[in-house]
Design a protein that fits this description.
alpha/beta, 4-stranded mixed β-sheet, 3-stranded mixed β-sheet, 16% strand
Length: 210
Protein backbone atom coordinates (compact mmCIF):
# COMPACT_ATOMS: atom_id res chain seq x y z
CA UNK A 1 0.00 0.00 0.00
CA UNK A 2 2.78 2.42 0.89
CA UNK A 3 4.78 1.58 -2.24
CA UNK A 4 1.78 2.28 -4.46
CA UNK A 5 0.10 5.24 -2.75
CA UNK A 6 3.25 6.70 -1.11
CA UNK A 7 1.37 6.98 2.20
CA UNK A 8 3.54 6.39 5.27
CA UNK A 9 2.19 7.46 8.67
CA UNK A 10 -1.38 6.54 7.76
CA UNK A 11 -0.33 2.95 6.96
CA UNK A 12 1.32 2.56 10.36
CA UNK A 13 -1.78 3.94 12.12
CA UNK A 14 -4.09 1.67 10.12
CA UNK A 15 -2.03 -1.42 10.91
CA UNK A 16 -2.02 -0.55 14.62
CA UNK A 17 -5.79 -0.05 14.62
CA UNK A 18 -6.28 -3.39 12.86
CA UNK A 19 -3.98 -5.42 15.10
CA UNK A 20 -3.84 -3.45 18.36
CA UNK A 21 -0.31 -4.73 18.89
CA UNK A 22 2.22 -2.12 19.97
CA UNK A 23 5.13 -4.45 19.30
CA UNK A 24 4.27 -4.39 15.56
CA UNK A 25 4.66 -0.61 15.23
CA UNK A 26 8.45 -0.52 14.80
CA UNK A 27 8.59 -3.42 12.27
CA UNK A 28 5.69 -1.82 10.37
CA UNK A 29 7.51 1.53 10.26
CA UNK A 30 10.62 -0.18 8.87
CA UNK A 31 8.63 -2.01 6.20
CA UNK A 32 6.76 1.19 5.29
CA UNK A 33 9.95 3.21 4.87
CA UNK A 34 11.60 0.49 2.76
CA UNK A 35 8.51 0.27 0.57
CA UNK A 36 8.46 4.07 0.20
CA UNK A 37 12.13 4.23 -0.80
CA UNK A 38 11.72 1.44 -3.36
CA UNK A 39 8.53 3.03 -4.72
CA UNK A 40 10.23 6.43 -5.13
CA UNK A 41 13.13 4.75 -6.92
CA UNK A 42 10.78 3.09 -9.43
CA UNK A 43 8.40 5.96 -10.19
CA UNK A 44 7.85 9.49 -8.98
CA UNK A 45 4.51 10.16 -7.32
CA UNK A 46 1.81 7.81 -6.10
CA UNK A 47 -0.86 5.94 -8.00
CA UNK A 48 -3.17 8.97 -7.96
CA UNK A 49 -0.63 11.14 -9.77
CA UNK A 50 0.09 8.36 -12.28
CA UNK A 51 -3.61 7.88 -13.02
CA UNK A 52 -3.95 11.62 -13.60
CA UNK A 53 -1.13 11.50 -16.17
CA UNK A 54 -2.39 8.26 -17.75
CA UNK A 55 -5.93 9.55 -18.22
CA UNK A 56 -4.79 12.97 -19.41
CA UNK A 57 -6.65 14.83 -16.66
CA UNK A 58 -5.57 18.49 -16.90
CA UNK A 59 -4.47 19.12 -13.32
CA UNK A 60 -2.38 22.26 -12.91
CA UNK A 61 0.42 21.84 -10.40
CA UNK A 62 3.15 24.11 -9.05
CA UNK A 63 5.55 23.40 -11.93
CA UNK A 64 3.37 25.32 -14.38
CA UNK A 65 3.94 28.59 -12.48
CA UNK A 66 7.70 28.42 -12.99
CA UNK A 67 7.46 27.58 -16.70
CA UNK A 68 5.10 30.50 -17.40
CA UNK A 69 6.99 33.28 -15.65
CA UNK A 70 7.02 36.58 -17.60
CA UNK A 71 5.07 34.99 -20.47
CA UNK A 72 1.93 36.53 -22.04
CA UNK A 73 -1.12 34.39 -22.65
CA UNK A 74 -0.69 35.01 -26.39
CA UNK A 75 2.34 32.69 -26.34
CA UNK A 76 0.32 29.79 -24.90
CA UNK A 77 -3.16 30.11 -26.43
CA UNK A 78 -4.51 28.48 -29.57
CA UNK A 79 -4.89 31.31 -32.11
CA UNK A 80 -8.29 32.12 -33.59
CA UNK A 81 -7.19 30.81 -37.01
CA UNK A 82 -7.05 27.28 -35.58
CA UNK A 83 -10.47 27.41 -33.91
CA UNK A 84 -13.92 26.39 -35.06
CA UNK A 85 -16.21 29.33 -34.44
CA UNK A 86 -19.93 29.88 -34.88
CA UNK A 87 -21.12 33.00 -36.69
CA UNK A 88 -23.73 34.95 -34.77
CA UNK A 89 -25.90 35.06 -37.90
CA UNK A 90 -25.99 33.74 -41.45
CA UNK A 91 -25.39 30.02 -40.84
CA UNK A 92 -27.93 27.60 -42.28
CA UNK A 93 -29.28 24.71 -40.26
CA UNK A 94 -27.66 22.32 -42.75
CA UNK A 95 -24.30 24.03 -42.28
CA UNK A 96 -24.69 23.91 -38.50
CA UNK A 97 -25.37 20.18 -38.53
CA UNK A 98 -22.37 19.54 -40.76
CA UNK A 99 -20.18 21.59 -38.45
CA UNK A 100 -21.40 19.56 -35.46
CA UNK A 101 -20.72 16.28 -37.24
CA UNK A 102 -17.12 17.29 -37.89
CA UNK A 103 -16.40 18.53 -34.38
CA UNK A 104 -17.11 15.56 -32.13
CA UNK A 105 -14.05 16.19 -29.97
CA UNK A 106 -14.88 19.85 -29.27
CA UNK A 107 -16.79 20.91 -26.16
CA UNK A 108 -17.85 24.35 -27.28
CA UNK A 109 -17.54 27.17 -29.78
CA UNK A 110 -16.79 30.87 -29.56
CA UNK A 111 -19.58 32.88 -31.20
CA UNK A 112 -18.40 35.82 -33.30
CA UNK A 113 -19.96 38.46 -35.55
CA UNK A 114 -18.99 39.17 -39.15
CA UNK A 115 -15.93 41.14 -37.98
CA UNK A 116 -14.72 38.31 -35.69
CA UNK A 117 -15.71 40.31 -32.61
CA UNK A 118 -16.49 38.03 -29.70
CA UNK A 119 -20.21 37.65 -28.99
CA UNK A 120 -20.11 34.79 -26.50
CA UNK A 121 -19.47 31.10 -26.01
CA UNK A 122 -21.80 28.16 -26.50
CA UNK A 123 -21.46 24.50 -25.47
CA UNK A 124 -21.50 21.98 -28.27
CA UNK A 125 -23.86 19.55 -26.51
CA UNK A 126 -26.49 22.25 -26.09
CA UNK A 127 -26.25 23.25 -29.75
CA UNK A 128 -26.36 19.62 -30.92
CA UNK A 129 -29.46 18.91 -28.83
CA UNK A 130 -31.20 22.03 -30.13
CA UNK A 131 -30.23 21.35 -33.75
CA UNK A 132 -31.56 17.78 -33.62
CA UNK A 133 -34.91 18.91 -32.24
CA UNK A 134 -35.53 21.78 -34.67
CA UNK A 135 -38.38 21.18 -37.10
CA UNK A 136 -37.25 23.91 -39.53
CA UNK A 137 -35.97 23.18 -43.04
CA UNK A 138 -32.28 22.63 -43.72
CA UNK A 139 -32.07 25.98 -45.48
CA UNK A 140 -33.39 27.90 -42.47
CA UNK A 141 -30.96 30.49 -41.11
CA UNK A 142 -29.81 29.94 -37.54
CA UNK A 143 -29.01 32.91 -35.32
CA UNK A 144 -26.92 32.93 -32.17
CA UNK A 145 -27.46 36.62 -31.62
CA UNK A 146 -30.37 39.04 -31.81
CA UNK A 147 -30.90 38.95 -35.57
CA UNK A 148 -33.72 37.08 -37.31
CA UNK A 149 -33.97 33.43 -38.25
CA UNK A 150 -34.19 30.42 -35.98
CA UNK A 151 -32.87 31.88 -32.75
CA UNK A 152 -30.53 29.88 -30.53
CA UNK A 153 -29.31 32.95 -28.72
CA UNK A 154 -30.60 31.64 -25.40
CA UNK A 155 -27.87 28.96 -25.51
CA UNK A 156 -25.05 31.49 -25.73
CA UNK A 157 -23.14 32.67 -22.68
CA UNK A 158 -22.66 36.37 -23.52
CA UNK A 159 -20.03 36.93 -20.83
CA UNK A 160 -17.54 34.04 -20.85
CA UNK A 161 -14.27 34.29 -18.95
CA UNK A 162 -12.13 36.52 -21.17
CA UNK A 163 -8.61 37.93 -20.94
CA UNK A 164 -6.41 40.08 -23.16
CA UNK A 165 -3.45 38.79 -25.22
CA UNK A 166 -0.97 40.63 -22.98
CA UNK A 167 -2.35 39.13 -19.77
CA UNK A 168 0.30 37.24 -17.82
CA UNK A 169 0.06 33.47 -18.23
CA UNK A 170 0.44 33.02 -14.46
CA UNK A 171 -2.74 35.05 -14.01
CA UNK A 172 -4.61 32.69 -16.33
CA UNK A 173 -3.39 29.68 -14.33
CA UNK A 174 -4.77 31.28 -11.17
CA UNK A 175 -8.11 31.89 -12.92
CA UNK A 176 -8.30 28.21 -13.83
CA UNK A 177 -7.49 27.17 -10.27
CA UNK A 178 -9.79 29.57 -8.43
CA UNK A 179 -12.73 30.01 -10.82
CA UNK A 180 -12.57 26.67 -12.64
CA UNK A 181 -13.72 27.63 -16.15
CA UNK A 182 -13.46 25.02 -18.90
CA UNK A 183 -12.06 27.54 -21.35
CA UNK A 184 -10.75 31.08 -21.29
CA UNK A 185 -11.25 33.20 -24.38
CA UNK A 186 -8.70 35.77 -25.48
CA UNK A 187 -9.97 38.96 -27.14
CA UNK A 188 -8.14 42.08 -28.27
CA UNK A 189 -8.24 45.16 -26.07
CA UNK A 190 -9.20 47.61 -28.82
CA UNK A 191 -12.28 46.12 -30.46
CA UNK A 192 -12.93 42.77 -28.78
CA UNK A 193 -11.86 40.70 -31.79
CA UNK A 194 -11.34 37.03 -30.92
CA UNK A 195 -7.61 36.36 -30.68
CA UNK A 196 -7.58 32.81 -29.33
CA UNK A 197 -8.72 30.29 -26.76
CA UNK A 198 -7.03 28.61 -23.84
CA UNK A 199 -7.72 25.43 -21.84
CA UNK A 200 -5.86 23.64 -19.08
CA UNK A 201 -4.58 21.13 -21.62
CA UNK A 202 -3.06 23.95 -23.68
CA UNK A 203 -1.10 25.11 -20.63
CA UNK A 204 0.09 21.59 -19.79
CA UNK A 205 1.02 20.93 -23.41
CA UNK A 206 3.11 24.11 -23.48
CA UNK A 207 4.89 23.50 -20.16
CA UNK A 208 5.72 19.86 -20.95
CA UNK A 209 7.18 20.78 -24.34
CA UNK A 210 9.57 23.37 -22.89
Amino acid sequence: MCGVTKVTVAVVVIMYELTGALNFIVPTMIVVMVARVIGDAIVEGGISEQLILLNGIPLLGEDEDECLLDMPVAAVMRPAEELLVLPAAGLSLRGLRRLLEGSAGIRGFPVVDSDMRLVGYVHRDAVAKAASSLAASDDAVVSFGTSGGVSLGHLVNPSPTTVRPRTAAETVVEIFRKLGPQVILVASEEDGVLAGLLTRKDILRHTRSH
